[in-house]
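Handoff note, outgoing to incoming analyst
You'll be picking up this chain. Sequence as last confirmed:
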Amino acid sequence: EDVVVAEKQQQGNYFARRILYHEACATTTARWALSHGGDSESLMIAVAPIKDVRFLGGINGRVPRICNYLLANGGVGSDGVGNASGESNTASAGASGTVNMDDVTTILLNPSAKETLSESKFLRLEIGTSPENWAYQTKVADYLWFSTAPKVSMLPRMMNEQ
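Most recent structure output, in case you need it:
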């Protein structure tokens, strides 16, 4: 019985650690992006394991929410920390003054079918593909990058369809 309780605690701790890690990385990313938003030469690239960014379930999925929270609560100062003056830095926000998923680009490098949570040999490119779930459909990433051409049998549809 003690083994079952310990195992459940480990599972709970695992998810708590993952959430804390994703929130910390997304907060750091959001603060940097907002404090450098007025600089058109700025570009932030964060390198993270596939499991931390696939299907927008990790760092990348949290960035817009955290950016919008920071913008609504005074933005960030030039040091990337809260803006004491209360003036919101919206330079990096979209035309609506908010940050959305279109402002975050995710690129998976050399993903395997297993890393995209596929139970077949094909890459899984999205989840929630039935008509009842289209409102919740989530893509695996914006782009897939392969250092060498992948096996055609790994792709569920043609690349660069036209």
